[in-house]
Specification:
about 210 residues, alpha+beta, 3-stranded antiparallel sheet, Immunoglobulin-like, 5-stranded antiparallel sheet
């Protein structure tokens, strides 16, 4: 039985405007107060409200440009952000993947990270290089592989493929191809050497050079 995937709260408190921070913090403090879903927050919610009020007052006072007040505002902002992050972590763990429960906290759920699947079993991704005629190819590591071979060729429909071979000792860095012909489609394949035997070549990946 798989474990429920935890819901991460949207952070970014350090990057929002002062007004947005006051608004978001106030919503969280209000929704968390007396919330039976989250009975033991790691921060005293009355203390959080006091800190939000102090920060809000300093935001207004700082409008006159006083360096002293601005410094106090920055310091108080850090206090509020730290407390919100502590509560957010508590909400993430306590809600345990239950979105309905999570949404009662006042936090917004962060968008789930998307994972781009590899192009083939041995080629992870292909991208244009910094300059015209350049392509970078990232290979996937193969368990117990001692080395790798990479090859590329111009895609010629109906003609014999003339491959250029490149031996590789590691796949930690991308294969950087330069001097290719712009507006030309290239094919890429890779294989690994495992226990003195090469694996099959991967399926060919095609990519147009710019």
């Amino acid at each position: 039985m798989s474990k429920p995937k935890k819901i991460k709260p949207l952070d970014g408190f350090s990057n929002v405007t002062d007004a947005d921070l006051v608004s978001r913090a106030t919503n969280i403090q209000t929704d968390m107060t007396g919330n039976a879903n989250f009975p033991n927050p790691p921060v005293d919610l009355k203390e959080l409200k006091t800190n939000i009020d102090v920060f809000s007052a300093l935001v207004a006072e700082a409008l006159d440009g006083s360096k002293k007040v601005i410094a106090q505002k920055h310091k108080q902002r850090e206090v509020v952000v730290k407390q919100l992050k502590m509560i957010g972590r508590y909400v993430e763990v306590t809600s345990n993947g239950d979105m309905a429960k999570f949404q009662t906290s006042g936090f917004q759920p962060a968008a789930p990270k998307t994972v781009t699947p590899p192009l083939t079993e041995k080629i992870r991704k292909v991208q244009h290089g910094a300059n015209s005629g350049e392509i970078n190819v990232w290979l996937r590591a193969v368990a117990r592989a001692s080395s790798y071979e990479f090859r590329y060729a111009v895609a010629n429909a109906g003609a014999a493929t003339q491959w250029t071979m490149m031996p590789l000792s590691t796949v930690k860095a991308p294969v950087a191809l330069k001097g290719l012909t712009p507006a030309t489609t290239y094919l890429f394949q890779a294989r690994a050497l495992v226990k003195d035997t090469y694996t099959d070549w991967s399926d060919a990946v095609s990519f147009i050079c710019t």
